[in-house]
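dude i think i finally got it to work??
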Amino acid sequence: MVRQGPIPAFVHSLVEYLAGALLIATPLLLDYSSGAAKAVLIVLGVLVLFLVATTTSTMSLINQVPLSMHIVFDYVIAAVMIASPFLFSFSGESTPTAVFLAGGVLWLLLSIGTRYKKEEHPPRGTPKREQRAVRAATPPDADETRGAPERLRPAPDALPSDSIPEFEPPPAPRD
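look at this
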């Protein structure tokens, strides 16, 4: 289970759209002497835009990439950004190195701080007896017991007597 942070998934998606465009525009706005830094930023920007546009979320254009894969890619993108100056040999240039390291750290913080899914469970720390009391107070719905094993179905005597149809034997055959 992924830990849930304070940043809503909607905001995460907006930031990713903006970051993808910024990653593509940064090497064009700042004059990098390293061609590798320019290429890596543009490729990462295109990948980020593709990822956010195809993930199953409210802000996507095509719902294809599962959310769990998006989360993995977010961490991979952060790691690639942090490692790029050293992998592609432009760590001697201060501007692109600073951009990559700061971008990678910010991407990691965004990924850690995002609330990807809505809460489906009671908050941690809720006593078990309170959880059981809430479950016991809500009667099972008739649709929930359909198809359930016999031991999980409510006993017939627990049902109101007016809801149980009377048994009528079939008519006797005529000779």
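Helices lie at 9-29, 35-54, 67-87, 94-112, 128-137, 142-145.
im so relieved honestly
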